[in-house]
Specification:
The protein has 59 residues and is mainly alpha-helical. The chain contains 1 helix and no strands.
Length: 59
């Protein structure tokens, strides 16, 4: 499911103005994917696997 406009706006403020995102706090995790995880995908759907890549996922 896509994020709401409010979440997207909060993300832009987080990146460019260093403003904490209300739902996520002051830290934000970004994951790399090898293909589109789709609307129903999770953070582990098509997640990148590489020995030097630390995804931060609890798997």
């Amino acid at each position: 499911m896509s994020k709401s406009n409010a979440t997207e706006n909060d993300y832009v403020k987080f990146v460019f103005n260093a403003v904490a995102m209300p739902a996520y706090g002051a830290t934000l995790q970004v994951n790399l994917h090898t293909a589109d995880p789709g609307e129903a995908g999770t953070s582990t759907t098509n997640a990148l696997t590489y020995t030097d890549y630390a995804s931060g996922l609890d798997t």
